[in-house]
Design a protein that fits this description.
The complex is a heterodimer. By secondary structure, chain A is an alpha+beta fold. Chain A is built from twelve helices and twelve strands. By secondary structure, chain B is of the alpha+beta class. Classes of the chains: A alpha+beta, B alpha+beta. Chain A: One of its GO terms (molecular function) is oxidoreductase activity.
Chain lengths: 329, 717
């Protein structure tokens, strides 16, 4: 590990200044991912700007929804009675992530920015990986890619985004508030997290010295139901092979009136099943018609030989999540 | 005296007071870090260590250009090549340079600055793609590579059902919490190693011969070893490197493998391809068993996974043929991993038996009962003791096996398909010669000494129990000193051999001490003695009570000691441990990730010295088996010639949520042949038979027969 400077920011302005002054600096909060990346030599920043003293950890709730301070730990978010009451799918997603020890340290802002679990990216030595060493190639496309993406990938990168909370936030239409010396803006998750294209190393839309300050989660539509479903081999302490967050409106005749579906583990960001969401409106809450609607979104799925099964797993996971959210399971 | 005694080393381990190899302080301690090859086969064409040497704190950088010369090690299994002796690379992860620095961080940083140029050579890492397989020469105690009894063709010809199937198991890594580590000190011409090892005498033999040091100038210590599971049994290059560089530089030097290095710096459980032929009559009598096994070895040494060994003894059958072949690949040498041989092997045999049971329409347990082996069917020898029928009966009773519906897919709870499966566990009993010493001090303390290791199995707890049983004193009065080549010699802590081997020697030493005390007190060595605190009661017709301080003062001694030893002489019997494992699984009908809901396992393993530590061993084995069945797999990228995942996020071990209630029981048993204390081995037996029981349960739940481990979701879609 390379020696690095350490700056403890006293407020978000200070943090932004400190970052702006050092092009090779990185913000650190819980450090649950970044420290591993440092130890493995995957990242070697010249300075760490510790933002844990910037006071961005509040969880606020109002009639329009939640505002999760970027530094709110995952365990804090999941324990909040208002969050539990208003966004159970987010609580389910948070509580299925990592381990209790990690959730006590990891922040909701950092969770969105965690880097992929692709084994080539995470290797103890630099292997060909465009995300880690731009231009070096992608080892996974022709190598081990059982867990790789089935949506939105390119030959430059087939990695997925590993977050559980991000999937639930995507289905909840959450927006991320970010701040830089130039001011504030808000981004949808689909805007924050970039698809690989031909620059997979550019993972987010954040500029250098731009901080996530909060995640804004609108209230779920009145009367809607929700569910987060995670499929993984190990029963706990494991990233999702595929996961699904659903927000569903159901009318009096057990027909779907509104649907928002995000899949995790299938792309470089949570993947909204837009076609399925449209097709599900008016559909009866039973397996066969729900599956037919879900399949609409999978016409665009593209798999490699080693992860072709994930298409079927993705469909089944979405179907099960819709039926579970709707109370039909 | 023997019985359920809690682990005496538990508090020290939980509080951190127990010191492991890399936790010893030294004022002049330096840190070594390995540079390993990124390619599986190559010639090193250029070396530039100048940038690494400029890192502040770096003391020295060693490569094959400047490393001290070594001699071929003798006297114990060595799994590597001699490190830094030439410019050849034989596997990805092979050490090619070492940095020594004042601080670990400095050493690690310098590692990234050592520049080596490689001229890659062609390398095959896929054992299935190797054309030239070889007949191995296994160590004698593992049995021959091939065996045959009876007429296989005739057995197949008379059968009504003949199953021919191929099974496979994955490459796996031991992944103990403590990665291998060696702290070496060179002072006044004496080399002292504190090592994370399962065999201090093995390390001593390899290091003293490789460094050409007289035996009395090398001492190896291992007070605690943080799990081994086989990874610390053989000796590997990092231990030789630490010793070599401590002597070269003087003072103390610590070398700790990183987690990533623990995937390549010592051996792994090789993947296996196993072909089974199992022939049976309509009545369910086996008429022929053929088990052919292929596994990889390295290109520079030989290891063979004896997966067909279990098939040699498991069932009564007139014709049994087994073969083992090895395929050299460009990896570090594979090595035993809990449970070697029968662990992967019984998966194939026991799934095959389940398949034949399904085909014949006979209950899988009933089929096993019909083929129960009263004698070893390959050697013809009687078993030392065998309580397998009692294991089947008790296991079936505890599990409720009698209520199992025959048809697959017939147990269902909502979206969950439920399945019940079972398997037999068989494991060869490994035994090693052992010596021990017992010393009684005037204050009543009994110190038992044996140079064995504590790898987490309970050795510190049960050896005092055995000595106390002989001396009649409470076990708290006895302490064990171990993990030191200056102590009486024992074997490795491997092959589930320690309790039976070292325990027999400890019992012999305690008996010798009792006889000596009787002689000194009364002149008659056969008098019965009983120790309680500092009171020694001697019964020799009359009963006399001595105070130790007075007795020893009268004799003019501070303490009284005696030695004992044990050797495995009996060889007219087939020695194995046995068990019956029953599993219940749930598999979601749409998202078919198998989950184990309960395991029941009953074992026949000779006398159980301490039911608490024994249960700990067997439950640990069952968890290990869950990992083998459903999670653990090291995937190789054959283009890069490396294991893909070298961390515990990618290499999946079971967590608590994967482990259901485990019901473990032992058959009451005393084996008069296997050891001096009635015991056979237990530790590794617990991980045998679990994976096939789970796989058979998955079949019962889903109707899908999976013949490769681990069972993956995509196998069941």
């Amino acid at each position: 590990m390379r020696d690095f400077d350490y700056v403890r920011a006293t407020g978000s302005d200070h943090a932004i200044e400190a970052l702006a002054a050092r092009p090779g600096a990185r913000p650190v909060a819980g450090g649950t991912d970044l420290l591993t990346l440092l130890k493995d030599g995957i990242e070697a920043p010249e300075a760490l700007v510790d933002i844990t003293g910037t006071g961005l950890g509040a969880v606020e709730h109002g009639p329009d929804g939640l505002t999760l301070g970027a530094l709110a730990t995952l365990s804090r978010v999941a324990a909040d009675p208002a969050v539990r009451a208003s966004h159970p799918l987010l609580v389910q997603a948070v509580e299925s992530a990592a381990s209790p020890q990690l959730r006590n340290m990891a922040t909701i802002g950092g969770n969105l920015l965690q880097r992929t679990r692709c084994p080539y990216f995470r290797a103890e030595t630099a292997l060909p990986c465009n995300r880690r060493t731009p231009g070096s190639g992608c080892s996974a496309v022709d190598g081990e890619h059982r867990a790789a993406a089935i949506f939105g990938w390119t030959g430059h990168c087939v990695a997925t985004h590993p977050s559980d909370p991000a999937v639930a936030l995507s289905a909840a239409d959450a927006r991320v508030r970010v701040r830089s010396a130039g001011g504030e803006r808000t981004l949808a998750l689909d805007e924050l997290l970039r698809l690989p294209g031909d620059t997979p190393d550019r993972e987010t839309a954040l500029d250098h010295a731009e901080l996530i300050t909060a995640v804004e989660v609108p209230a779920l539509p009145a009367g809607s139901r929700s569910c987060y479903l995670k499929v993984r081999e190990r029963a706990s302490y494991e990233f999702a092979l595929v996961s699904c967050a659903v927000v569903l409106g159901v009318d009096g005749r057990k027909r779907i009136s509104q649907a928002r579906i995000a899949l995790g583990g299938v792309a470089a960001r949570p993947w909204r099943l837009v076609e399925a969401e449209r097709a599900l409106v008016g559909v009866e809450l039973t397996a066969v018609p729900v599956r037919a609607a879900v399949e609409r979104s999978f016409a665009a799925a593209e798999a490699l030989p080693g992860n072709a099964f994930k298409v079927e797993v993705g469909i089944r996971t979405a179907v099960r999540a819709v039926l579970t959210a709707g109370g039909a399971r | 005296m023997t019985g359920a005694r809690p682990r005496v080393d538990g508090p020290a381990k939980v509080t951190g007071a127990a010191r492991y190899a890399a936790e010893w302080r030294a004022a002049d301690l330096r840190h070594a870090a390995l540079v390993t090859s990124p390619v599986p086969a190559a010639t090193i064409t250029a070396v530039d260590t100048s940038a690494a040497e400029r890192v502040p704190g770096v003391v020295a950088v060693f490569t094959h250009h400047n490393a001290p010369r070594l001699r071929p090690p003798v006297g114990a299994p060595y799994g590597g090549r001699l490190p830094l002796q030439d410019n050849r690379v034989h596997y990805e992860g092979e050490p090619v340079a070492v940095v020594v620095a004042e601080r670990l961080e400095q050493a690690r940083e310098a590692v990234g600055l050592v520049r080596l140029d490689y001229a890659p050579l062609s390398a095959e890492t896929d054992f299935r793609a190797v054309a030239d397989t070889a007949v191995p020469t296994p160590p004698a105690r593992w049995g021959p590579a091939d065996t045959t009894v009876g007429d296989l063709a005739a057995g197949i010809a008379e059968a009504d059902v003949v199953l021919r199937a191929e099974y496979s198991t994955a490459a796996r890594h031991h992944s103990p919490i403590e990665t291998s580590a060696t702290q070496a000190e060179w002072r006044d011409g004496v080399l002292t190693l504190r090592d994370a090892t399962q065999g201090v005498f093995n390390v001593h033999a390899v290091v003293s011969s490789a460094l050409d040091l007289p035996a009395d100038r090398v001492r190896v210590l291992a007070e605690y070893t943080g799990g081994g599971f086989g990874s610390k049994g053989y000796v590997w290059p990092h231990q030789v490197i630490a010793a070599m560089l401590a002597r070269e530089l003087g003072g103390a030097l610590r070398l700790v493998l990183t987690r990533a290095q623990s995937f390549t710096s010592h051996g792994y459980q090789p993947p296996t391809r196993q072909r089974l032929v199992l022939a049976a009559t309509a009545e369910g009598r086996f008429t022929a068993i053929r088990h052919d096994s292929l596994s990889p070895t390295s290109t520079y040494g030989e290891y063979v996974e004896m997966t067909a060994n279990g098939s040699r003894v498991a069932y009564a059958c007139p014709a049994i043929t087994t073969t083992h072949r090895v395929a050299p690949v460009a990896t570090v040498l594979p090595t035993p991993m809990r449970a070697p041989h029968e662990g992967p092997g019984m998966f194939a045999l026991e799934v095959a038996v389940d398949e034949v049971a399904c085909e014949l329409g006979i209950d899988p347990l009933e089929l096993r009962l019909r083929n129960h082996a009263e004698v070893d069917p390959t050697s013809g020898k009687p078993f030392s003791t065998k309580g397998l029928l009692a294991c089947y009966a008790e296991g079936a009773r505890r599990f409720g096996w009698a209520d199992r519906p025959r048809a697959t897919g017939s147990l269902r709870e909502g979206d969950q398909l439920i399945g019940w499966g079972m398997a037999t566990a068989v494991m060869a009993t490994m035994r090693f010669p052992a010596a021990a010493r017992a010393r009684l001090h005037a204050d009543g303390r009994v110190v038992v000494e044996a140079g064995c290791q504590e790898i987490g199995t309970g050795t510190y707890t049960i050896m005092p129990q055995l000595a106390a049983e002989v001396l009649g004193c409470p076990p708290e009065q006895v302490v064990l000193r171990l993990g030191d080549t200056a102590l009486p010699r024992t074997g490795m802590t491997a092959g589930s051999s320690t309790t039976l081997s070292v325990g027999s020697a400890v019992t012999a030493a305690a008996e010798a001490l009792a006889a000596r005390l009787a002689l000194l007190a009364t002149g008659d060595p056969t008098a019965a003695v009983r120790l309680d605190g500092i009171e020694l009661t001697v019964k020799n017709g009359a009963v006399e009570v001595f105070r130790l301080d007075e007795l020893f003062a009268r004799l003019g001694v501070d303490s009284v000691a005696a030695g004992g030893s044990w050797e495995p002489r009996e060889n007219q019997r087939s020695m194995h441990t046995f068990g019956a494992v029953f599993a219940e699984v749930a598999v979601d009908v749409d998202l078919p990730v198998p989950r184990v809901r309960r395991l029941v396992a009953v074992y026949s393993a000779g006398r159980i010295v301490n039911p608490l530590t024994a249960r700990g061993q067997m439950t640990g084995g069952l968890v290990w088996g869950i990992g083998q069945a459903l999670l653990e797999k090291s995937t190789t990228d054959h283009r890069l010639g490396r294991f893909v995942d070298k961390n515990l996020a990618g290499y999946r071990l079971p967590v608590n949520a994967d482990v259901p209630d485990l019901d473990v029981a032992f058959v009451e048993e005393y084996d008069p042949h296997a050891s001096g204390i009635g015991a056979r081995g237990i530790g590794e037996l617990g991980s045998v038979g679990v994976a096939p029981a789970i796989a058979n349960a998955v079949h019962h739940a889903t109707g899908k027969r999976v013949r490769s481990l681990p069972i993956a979701l995509e196998d069941l879609l």
